[in-house]
């Protein structure tokens, strides 16, 4: 039993590494372990899944009129992903939240900043870096960058809770479950799992929604403030926006290559 | 040799019982932490590492400091240290046990700890830290135990130990280097992002480790028949002197770079630690105490008269140890996380439960240390006894 | 050896303690568990894999589902019969088997395993409504 399990996993691991589907794997395992489990079983993408080679987001700060607009994004995201509301500030979990320009861009803030930016709160979240320091730091590959579309993801099953990724992230985008989050989720979304205590979590660019053809939850309620798309596709809406407008990214001097742009 | 640990005085057993009691209470506290989560600590979203990891970092230094008796003896043939190499090695073993325990109590999901081995990730510094710490623990147990056993039997230690002994010397450097790399390779943490962090760690290690060793030597001399020797203690004192001066020098280099360049990302952390930032400065008194202790110790150690006086030396060593402990155990970790990446100041202080668990790990370490030192000292006493009877017979 | 008696007594006590679970449970074999199928599961008539296989192999299947879903982003599983399922413990498995206490737990308790899937995956989709 133990042997077959290990083989099962090993072959699955190899195929994942070379980018094959797991369909033939199940077949191979069935053959290797000598039982006739679903010889033709296969896995596939959802037919409507959204695909890109590098997902990115553009925040048009000019369109932000009120804090409520951002709060709506936060609410949509946190509801979608069962993010708990913890009273204790120390234990808070945030996937997307609002902050001032000088907090989001500490080294780019100046004393003379446009009045609009000075009084506007900006949404901040995981930047899904091209060169993510958190992925470099993780000792178990529990956080990893998906090669296919550049999304930096968390595998909650594998996280050991060492919090190295939190120290490595220069944007403070990661949160840790300091206690069982379940009692603090007012309304659970049954389509998405909750987390257990002792693991790290963060924005996942709504991979679970992209996989079934939906845009991220925050983008849907953003009233045009957020635009989401493929940065590598010159015809995508995000590419067009970035061509026509000047946009900045957070802490570019660190070489992380954020995928979230802010039009200022 | 283990049987030597089973025959001891009332004081020996009393010490073990007290330490065991502390460890027991701490274990119950840890069970509570396991059940509740790390929320029982003072850690937060912003200061995500705290007391546990700081103790770990400090104790890696203590472990590495043990090499300061091994190196002169084996590489420079400084015979005097032959008497106390075992004390350095066993101190390293106890310190490493504490290091590993501190990493364990810091994990959010300790039962998944082996994922580090199941999914080995060579780009993560923690992967290498696991290798060097366990490797150094293994080396010190094997070398320390076998050399001591040979000494007991009146023979020369096995020849296959020699390569391991030589290996243990660079290995000691590596454990603290890799531990520094955990911090100094992270972008966006200006306080740690400095090439001198590893050398600074080593300097403080070679000060705090031997300082503790001097104190242990003095204790051993008072409570047992074994005298580690005045010359040995004085040589260690000189090592402590150089190392603590180097440590303070490296720190001042940091202060200069940050202070003269005046780059906010670098100065803000130092400002927070020594003067407070945005009106918050819970660590300020500790940091100045640490500086005072280290500078005071330097004065007492540099002046030959006070260094040679063993009473004053003991005080100096306590000052070095506490000064380095505050510097590394409190300031270094918190200082790196405050202000946070969004330039907000959210402070950290350990909670009572956190301190209890920390005390427990120290207690376990000192249980290991007490037992190992008991064995080592008994062997030394035995041999001295044999010598004495030989002299009488002749 | 004058300690012979003591040693033998000690060994006997040790052996008795170690084998305690065996002789304590002697002749009291627990009956194999009977799992309860929900109406939905009964109506579906079949699982993603044949009954015998899913019973013995569901953990391996879930493991592959987990890695494929989380790490490769593929979400659809097509079984031997060509039927497609969403690879999701919460939304597929537990949708039919919404009675995990009478379904999952019965066998797990019998086999003395304690998986913690439900710490995160919503245990009973009907509960919160």
Strand content of chain B: under 5%
The CATH architecture of the domain at 2-185 and 203-254 and 347-383 in chain B is Up-down Bundle
Largest sheet of chain A: 4 strands, mixed
- The rounded Rg of chain B comes to 22 Å
Which segments of chain A are poorly predicted (pLDDT under 50) over 5 or more consecutive residues? Answer: 1-38
Provide structural commentary.
The complex is a heterotrimer of chains A (264), B (394) and C (129). Chain A is an alpha+beta fold and 264 residues long. Chain A folds into two domains: 2-32; 55-263, Alpha-Beta Plaits, CATH 3.30.70.20. Helix content of chain A is 28%, strand content 15%. Chain A is built from ten helices and eleven strands. Chain A has helices spanning 2-17, 23-32, 67-80, 101-104, 115-119, 133-137, 164-168, 207-210, 217-220, 237-244, and strands at 42-44, 55-60, 96-100, 121-125, 143-145, 152-154, 175-176, 200-201, 226-230, 247-248, 260-263. In chain A, a hairpin with a 6-residue loop joins strand 5 and strand 6. The longest helix of chain A has 16 residues, at 2-17. With 394 residues, chain B is an all-alpha fold. Chain B has a domain at 2-185 and 203-254 and 347-383: Formate dehydrogenase/DMSO reductase fold. Chain B is 75% helix and 0% strand. Chain B has helices spanning 10-36, 51-65, 67-75, 85-106, 115-118, 125-153, 161-184, 197-223, 230-261, 264-274, 284-302, 304-308, 310-337, 352-393. The model of chain B has no long low-confidence stretch (mean pLDDT 93). Chain C has a two-stranded antiparallel sheet with strand order 1-2. The N and C termini of chain C lie far apart (73 Å). In chain C, a hairpin with a 5-residue loop joins strand 1 and strand 2 (84-86). Chain C has six helices and two strands, in the order ααααββαα. Chain C has 129 residues and is mainly alpha-helical. Chain C has a domain at 30-119. Helices cover 49% and strands 5% of the residues of chain C. Chains in contact: A-B, A-C. Chains A and B meet through helix 4, helix 6, helix 7 and strand 7 of A and helix 5 and helix 6 of B. Strand 1 of chain A pairs antiparallel with strand 1 of chain C.
């Amino acid at each position: 039993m133990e042997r077959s399990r290990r083989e099962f996993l090993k072959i699955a691991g190899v195929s994942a590494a070379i980018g094959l589907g797991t369909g033939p794997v199940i077949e191979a395992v069935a053959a290797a372990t000598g039982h006739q489990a679903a010889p033709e079983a296969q896995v596939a993408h959802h037919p409507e899944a959204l695909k890109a080679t590098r997902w990115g987001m553009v925040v048009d700060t000019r369109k932000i009129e009120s804090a409520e607009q951002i709060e709506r994004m936060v609410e949509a995201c946190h509801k979608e992903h069962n993010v708990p509301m913890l009273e204790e500030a120390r234990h808070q979990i945030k996937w997307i939240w609002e902050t001032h320009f000088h907090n989001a861009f500490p080294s780019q803030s100046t004393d003379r900043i446009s009045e609009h930016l000075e009084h506007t709160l900006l949404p901040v979240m995981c930047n899904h870096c091209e060169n993510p320091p958190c992925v470099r730091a993780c000792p178990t590959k529990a956080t990893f960058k998906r090669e296919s579309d550049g999304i930096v993801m968390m595998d909650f099953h594998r996280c050991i809770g060492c919090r190295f990724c939190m120290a490595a992230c220069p944007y403070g985008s990661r949160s840790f479950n300091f206690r069982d989050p379940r009692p603090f989720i007012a309304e659970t979304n049954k389509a998405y799992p909750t987390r257990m205590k002792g693991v790290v979590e963060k924005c996942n660019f709504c991979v679970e929604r992209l996989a079934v053809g939906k845009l991220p939850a925050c983008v849907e309620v953003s009233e045009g403030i957020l635009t989401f798309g493929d940065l590598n596709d010159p015809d995508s809406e995000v590419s067009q926006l970035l061509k026509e407008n000047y946009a900045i990214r957070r802490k570019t001097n660190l070489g992380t290559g954020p995928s979230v742009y802010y039009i200022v | 040799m283990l049987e030597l640990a089973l025959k001891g005085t009332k004081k020996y057993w009393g010490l073990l019982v007290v330490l065991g009691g502390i460890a027991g209470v701490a274990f119950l506290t840890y069970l509570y932490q396991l059940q509740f989560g790390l929320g029982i600590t003072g850690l937060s979203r912003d200061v995500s590492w705290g007391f546990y990891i700081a103790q770990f970092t400090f104790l890696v230094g203590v472990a590495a400091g043990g090499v300061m008796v091994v190196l002169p003896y084996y590489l420079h043939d400084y015979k005097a240290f032959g008497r106390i190499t075992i004390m350095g090695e066993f101190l390293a073993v106890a310190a490493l046990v504490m290091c590993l325990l501190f990493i364990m109590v810091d994990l959010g999901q300790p039962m998944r700890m082996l994922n580090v081995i199941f999914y080995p990730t060579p780009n993560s510094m923690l992967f290498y830290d696991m290798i060097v710490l366990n490797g150094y623990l293994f080396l010190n147990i094997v070398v320390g135990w076998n050399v001591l056993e040979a000494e007991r039997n009146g023979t020369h230690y096995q020849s296959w130990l020699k390569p391991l002994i030589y290996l243990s010397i660079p290995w000691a450097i590596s454990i603290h280097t890799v531990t520094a790399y955990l911090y100094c390779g992270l972008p966006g943490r200006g306080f740690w992002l400095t090439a001198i962090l590893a050398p600074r760690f080593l300097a403080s290690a070679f000060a705090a480790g031997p300082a503790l060793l001097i104190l242990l030597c003095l204790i051993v001399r008072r409570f047992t028949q074994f005298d580690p020797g005045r010359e040995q203690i004085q040589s260690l004192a000189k090592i402590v002197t150089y190392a603590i001066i180097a440590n303070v020098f490296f720190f001042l280099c940091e202060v200069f770079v940050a202070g003269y360049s005046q780059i906010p990302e670098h100065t803000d952390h130092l400002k927070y630690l020594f003067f407070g930032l945005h009106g918050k400065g819970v660590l300020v008194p500790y940091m100045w105490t640490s500086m005072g202790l280290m500078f005071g110790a330097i004065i007492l150690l540099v002046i030959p008269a006070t260094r040679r006086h063993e009473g004053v030396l003991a005080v100096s060593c306590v000052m070095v140890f506490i000064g380095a402990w505050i510097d590394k155990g409190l300031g270094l970790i918190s200082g790196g996380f405050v202000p946070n990446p969004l330039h907000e100041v959210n402070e950290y202080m350990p909670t009572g439960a956190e301190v209890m668990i920390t005390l427990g790990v120290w207690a376990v370490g000192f249980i290991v240390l007490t037992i190992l030192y008991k064995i080592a000292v008994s062997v030394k006493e035995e041999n001295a006894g044999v010598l004495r009877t030989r002299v009488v017979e002749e | 050896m004058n300690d012979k008696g003591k040693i033998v007594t000690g060994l006997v006590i040790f052996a008795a303690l170690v084998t305690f679970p065996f002789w304590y449970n002697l002749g009291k074999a627990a009956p194999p568990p009977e799992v309860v199928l929900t109406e939905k599961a009964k109506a579906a008539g079949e699982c993603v894999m044949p009954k015998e296989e899913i019973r013995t192999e569901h953990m391996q299947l879930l493991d592959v589902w987990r890695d494929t879903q989380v790490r490769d982003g593929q979400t659809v599983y097509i079984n031997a019969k060509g039927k497609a399922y969403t690879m999701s413990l919460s939304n597929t498995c537990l949708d039919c088997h919404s009675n995990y206490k009478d379904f999952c737990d019965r066998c797990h308790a019998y086999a003395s395993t304690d998986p913690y899937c439900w710490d995160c995956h919503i245990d009973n989709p009907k509960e919160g409504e």
